[in-house]
Amino acid sequence: MINGKHIVNKHQIIKEYLSSDQTFKGLGEKYGLPARTIQTWVRTYRKSHPEQAPVAVADKDLQKRLAHTELKNELLEEILKIAEEETGIDFKKNLEPGSHEYRATEKPANQHSLPVVWL
């Protein structure tokens, strides 16, 4: 870093743009360059590497979808964990894939019962 500005080569900035959600303006501010310069670099790169440009755009979309799916999965796992703690029922064990049948197991005597609602 010199005078508060990052020193990065052109190809690193292009790669960062193509693999992130950063805008030309955001990268320009980050590296102390005009946004228009970065835009020109990216446009030139895409013209000289046409087979790579669409993949980078698709990767951004896939990365967003993957992050969303992982977050959703984490949330559902936490909900399941809380439900198991509250009811004493091992839902993973008692619900077989493809089945919507509920098979209750005995709860420890010290736990109170909560109604089970299937959506």
Folded structure, characterized:
This protein folds into 2 domains: 1-49; 51-94, no CATH class. The longest helix is centred in the middle third of the chain and has 35 residues, at 53-87. It is mostly helical and 119 residues long. The protein has helices at residues 10-18, 24-31, 35-48, 53-87, 91-94. The chain is 59% helix and 0% strand. It has 5 helices and no strands.
Total beta-strand segments: 0
What form results from the Cα inertia axes? elongated
Structure annotation, total helices: 5
Structural class: mainly alpha
> Beta-sheet strand percentage?
under 5%
Rg to the nearest angstrom?
A: 25 Å
> Secondary-structure element order, as H and E?
HHHHH
Low-confidence segments, ≥5 residues, pLDDT <50? none
The description of the largest β-sheet is: none
Mean pLDDT across the residues is 77
* Distance between the amino and carboxyl termini: 56 Å
How many structural domains are formed by the residues? 2
Q: Helical percent range?
A: 55-70%
